[in-house]
Write a structure and sequence with these properties.
- It is a single chain.
- Helices cover 34% and strands 28% of the residues.
- It is of the alpha+beta class and 222 residues long.
- This is Gnk2-homologous domain-containing protein.
- Belongs to the cysteine-rich repeat secretory protein family.
- Pfam families: Stress-antifung (PF01657).
């Protein structure tokens, strides 16, 4: 005859069973979210580049917690980033990235532009876009005879959002020191904004030979 287990021992046994199950099933977590461009590719070279990129990201970022790289050449080049939360252990980082790599392949199959978020890590891939020179320029007619020309540029190491913020601050300060002048320049450490009533950026408009001088101001900020 088998005697029933005492309640404390029964609880301990059940807890050990649950923990043993968790060692195989509870390590993986569902992603917080993912984003795909929904454009699958059938190009074998591109698919190889995607797989190589993800494999390298997981391998290199698992120990350092952060890694960026590219895979492929020319128009087929793909950029990738992997990053773990700064307070997680190397083992947790590695496990999270492995889960992310597996899941992103299932949720965004054969897609260049894809990203996935977990509590412990983040994984991203995207097509390498040709970098511009951080410059924007344009013109607008104020009257049939008067055209306003403007140019803005950021240092190339500045993130897009920081560039936009720098330019917004510069333009927002125009009323304070430009005082409706015909030309004005605001120079910051990370951006430069200028407007004139004559063309000054290249290529110059050969049909307009005017050169306005004398009624502009330069304002420099740190």
């Amino acid at each position: 005859m088998t005697l029933p287990l005492p309640l404390p021992l029964l609880y301990t046994t059940l807890l050990l069973i649950i923990l043993s199950l968790c060692t195989t099933n509870c390590n993986g977590q569902d992603p917080l979210g993912n984003l795909c461009n929904d454009q699958q590719t059938n190009n074998k070279t591109t698919i190889q580049n995607i797989n190589h990129l993800i494999t390298e990201l997981v391998s290199k970022a698992s120990s350092s917690g952060y890694f960026t790289t590219t895979s492929g050449q020319g128009q087929d080049k793909i950029y990738g980033l992997a990053q773990c939360r700064g307070d997680v252990s190397t083992d947790d980082c590695s496990g999270c990235l492995r889960d992310a790599a597996k899941e992103i392949g299932q949720r965004c199959p054969n897609q260049v532009d894809a990203r996935i978020w977990y509590d412990y890590c983040f994984l991203r891939s995207e097509a390498v876009k040709e970098k511009n020179k951080g410059i924007g320029k344009g013109e607008t007619k104020l009257t049939p005879l008067v055209t306003l020309y403007a140019l803005a540029q950021c240092t190339r190491d500045l993130a897009v959002v920081d560039c936009a913020q720098c330019i917004a601050i510069a333009v927002g300060n125009f009323p304070n020191f430009c005082n409706n002048r015909k030309g004005c320049r605001a120079i910051y450490s990370n951006c430069y904004v200028r407007y004139e009533l004559y063309p000054f950026f290249f290529p110059l408009d050969s049909s307009n030979n005017s050169s306005s001088v004398g009624n502009w101001v330069v304002q420099v900020y740190p």
